[in-house]
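sorry for the late reply, my laptop died twice this morning and i had to redo everyting from scratch. anyway the thing you sent over, i finally got around to it. pasting the sequence first so we're on the same page, its 291 residues, then the predicted structure underneath. double check i copied it right bc i was rushing
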Amino acid sequence: MPTRRFMQLDVFSDRPTLGNPLAVVVDAHDLDSDAMQAFARWTNLSETTFLLPPSTPQADYRVRIFTPRQELPFAGHPSVGSAYAAIEAGLVDTGKRALVQECAAGLLAVRVEGDGAARRIHVQAPPAQIEPVGEALRAQLQAALPAALHEGEAHQVDNGPHWLVCDLHEAAAVRALVPDMAAIGALCLHRSAVGVSVFGREHAGEAAMAVRAFCPADGIPEDPVTGSANAAIMAVLATQPGGGGYGTHYRASQGREVGRDGLVEVARDPISGAITVGGACALTVRGSLSL
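ok and here's the structure:
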């Protein structure tokens, strides 16, 4: 079997075991979709990515992103971690600060700050399409979470993956949830959604917001730290006066309920409306893979 370079990173944390793990296969140019999906199912992480040569001169590298169940056009922590891995693997110049990632969602801008362990990666999310949920879907979300949801507090957001986003207002309500995973899984399958994300305001500490994301239909009951969900939340806030009180830049905390402690930097350009998610990575495994 061919030997390929392999990395596993902890994304949205500078300390191993506290972020969201990502498996990255570096030399994946000759793997087909079935092989990629089989390996992603085997790793059983929320996402596994495969780095390939770009198909356009505008891009620095190309990435394909798989959950254990399906390929995604875009996902946040896989994009942040894949950019970090592409730099570590020498696929791009270590001194380059502006990169372009090619993925199924198109060409996405990547900003690099710092080097080595101090490196921070910020990835621009695809433009989001937002729809308020109807009364029937809101009632299903209320029962599955369970949580009280009033009109205007739940939205469908498509920014590559499809998210159901719920504003619970307070971090305490977010952290206290004990969801009905079977109900959420069935709801996501019916609505072709990757998961349900909830958020609420923190009043102390280094983060302005607490976030949780539930993706049981893809084999991930609770995702530790989720870039695309955080980008979807910012897209919803952008439709509200003053960004719902969060403004155009904030830090989100996610993962404490599953023994992690991830931090996501979320920003929205006030002129273009472009949303970026970013943070640290900790490279925890570097080796070779027979696949």
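The chain is about 20% helix and 40% strand.
thats about all i looked at so far, will dig more tmrw
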